[in-house]
Amino acid sequence: MQDLSIVNSGELTMSSREIASLTGKRHGDVIRDIRTMLEQMGDDADLRHVSEQQDQRGYTSEFLLDRYHTEVLVTGYDVKRRAAVIRRWFDLETGAATPTYQIPQTMAEALRLAADQAERIEQQERELEQARPAVEFTNRVIESDETIRIGEVAKIIGTGQNRLFKFLRQHGFLTRRNEPYQSKIDAGLMDVKLSKQFEHPRAGLTRSITPLVTGKGLARIQRLWAEEHAGEVA
Predict the structure, then answer these.
(1) How many other C-beta atoms are found inside a 10 Å radius of the C-beta of residue 201?
(2) Beta-carbon neighbour count of residue 206 at 10 Å?
(3) Hey, is 192 helix, strand or coil?
(4) Contact yes or no for 209/192 (Cβ under 8 A)
(5) SS3 (DSSP) at 7
(6) Half-sphere exposure (CA, 13 Å, Cβ side) for 57?
(7) Distance between CA 11 and CA 13 in Å, rounded?
(8) CA distance 153 to 164
(9) Domains of the chain, first to last
């Protein structure tokens, strides 16, 4: 997606991806900041000038903001980050910089844009077809009482097992020993598999605990991961 665009009304907008790039913040954090801003603004947020773009899974891929909402957003950022965003707007409005995307001005430009969009749609359909077995497996887990190991969850999300373990510890799913918190078990998000008791050389008679993720937990983890890692290249 383009980082800057002009909406049909001719209004200039800046995307959350561009804001992340200018400020050096993670795109997922910028999306979180925008949601917080809109929530705090309440009825004062004119949503005609805020556009939420979603991917085919229904997750937020980016936000498009007009200048007013962009400046409200970056008011809470430090001076260096705020200055970078405002300078970009100034360059854009004075013509020192140009948007990477503009509304087609001729029939030829419109046809080229339509062809590009058709090609992207075809590519997305091919990717969806390739991912269909994994999607069907994920849906089966979510809709049933089946539980899966952390390694399988990592494969579904598209990351490494160790990275996912760290993510789950940071978000309060697992303890430092990688054991599910009781609150997550009670909420139906996690479960455990206990091994048979064995004699540990130091701890004595004990048993190992394998953390498991339920269908409900998988859906929750996928959404958290997608929102926090939006815009990252796999």
Answers:
(1) 5
(2) 12
(3) strand
(4) yes
(5) coil
(6) 17
(7) 6
(8) 8
(9) 4-94 (no CATH), 147-228 (1.10.10)
- Do the beta carbons of residue 71 and residue 88 sit within 8 Å? no
Pair of tokens at residue 52: 């939420």
d(CA 93, CA 204): 71
Q: What is the pLDDT along the chain (234 residues), one digit of tens a residue?
A: 333 344 434 568 888 988 988 888 888 889 889 988 888 887 765 677 788 887 766 778 888 888 888 988 988 888 888 888 888 888 877 766 555 445 556 667 666 766 766 676 666 666 656 556 555 555 565 555 678 889 988 988 888 999 999 999 999 999 998 899 999 989 889 888 886 655 656 656 666 788 999 888 888 888 888 877 765 544
Cα distance between residue 20 and residue 231, in whole Å: 10
CA 26/CA 17 separation, integer angstroms: 9
